[in-house]
Amino acid sequence: MDEHIDENTGKPFDIQLCSGVCIGAAWRNVTESIKNGVRPQWTAAVVRRKSKAFEYHNQIVNLLNKKFTQKKIAEALGISHGTVHSSLKQYGREFI
User: Is the overall model pTM greater than 0.90, yes or no?
Assistant: First the structure.
């Protein structure tokens, strides 16, 4: 990897860029390891949004699981029946 130096401070940048050769070598290491039976532990970031729409949707799904009708859910949450229907249509019947 080429070390890139900040001209103003004379110190290396906090984030270094890797050349195409460096990326290629890293990828070959990964593919060779997989061929040799090493399995990486994959992780995925879980996004938890705090928007009002997602909060309402989770409340809708919770009430739906308790056998509430869409009309009763709308009344309980103080939102329109159309909002309940749209939320279920857009996000499905699973918690977000």
Answer: no
